[in-house]
Structures are given as structure tokens and as C-alpha cells.
Amino acid sequence: MSSLHRHNPADLSPPTGFSHAVTATGSRIVFLAGQTSLDRDGKVTGGTLPEQFENALGNLLTALRHAGGSPADLARVTVYATDVADYRRHAHELGRIWHRLAGRDYPAMAVIGAVRLWDEQALVELDGFAVLD
């Protein structure tokens, strides 16, 4: 059985929406490709960052479930945002979307500013990896 342990030392700033470190034991690692807000037809959907974040996270979780995992198996997620200030402005709303779709077990995470993503209309992309039994 896969086991993730989240480590949030008291001598570091309290984490909000992420864990400082995650240790994992398990026998399979699932590497998740970057997911944007593409629909089944390959079109970017959603005009706002929260809409696109929800779709991109949903796509990431769909890929993870197809590989046999669940949101609790996520060890690391990287978010690429074309406007980090906009991401920060929507942080509470994005947190609510994360809770609804992925729960409250946070992986180690980072948000990285990107000039643009592969699809010009994409505002956000998520990739990561999970550890499964």
C-alpha cells in the first residue's frame, strides 16, 4: 500500500495550500503530463483563471485515476501560471476548487510564472507525480 507522509515543520512558515515536504513509500510512480483546460476536442475552455484551473485540475485527476491513482496519491504538483498576480488574487477560490476536486491532503507544490503556455489561450497548467502501491 502506498503511503504519503506530509511534513510541515513548525520552524517554517505555515503552509497554505501545499505541504513543505512529502515522503512516499510505494511500488509505482505515476508521472503526470502537464494538463491545461483542454476539452475532448483539444480546445481551451474557460475564460477565467479559476475556470481554467478547475478544468486543468480535473484533467490531471482524470489521467491519475486512469493510471489507478486518486488525489490522495499526489506527491508533487507544479502549477504554471501566465499571471502569478492573478493566481494570488484568486488563491482562496482556487483553494476551494482544490478541496472540492482533490480533498485536503496537499502534495508538495510550487507555482511558477510562465510567459505563455503551449496553447496561447491557456492561463494555467498543472503537472505532477503520484506514488501508488
**Which spans of ≥5 residues are poorly predicted at pLDDT below 50?**
none
Shape: globular
Number of strands: 6
- SSE order: EEEHEHHEE
Strand content: 25-35%
Give me the secondary-structure category.
alpha+beta
Helical region count?
A: 3
Give the oligomeric state: single chain
> Biggest sheet, open or closed, and with what strands and sense?
4 strands, mixed
**Gap between N and C termini:** 4 Å
Widest sheet, order of strands: 3-6-4-5
Q: Give the mean pLDDT.
A: 95
Binned, the helix content reads 25-40%
Radius of gyration: 15 Å
Put the structure in a nutshell.
The protein has 133 residues and is α+β, with helices and mostly antiparallel strands.
Describe the structure.
It is a single chain. This protein is 27% helix and 31% strand. It has helices at 49-66, 84-89, 91-102; strands at 3-7, 21-25, 28-35, 74-81, 108-113, 124-132. It has a four-stranded mixed beta sheet. A two-stranded antiparallel sheet has the order 1-2. The termini are close together.
Structural descriptors:
single chain, 133 residues, alpha+beta, four-stranded mixed sheet, globular
Map the helices and strands.
Layout: E1 3-7, E2 21-25, E3 28-35, H1 49-66, E4 74-81, H2 84-89, H3 91-102, E5 108-113, E6 124-132
Parallel strand pairs: 4-5
Antiparallel strand pairs: 1-2, 3-6, 4-6
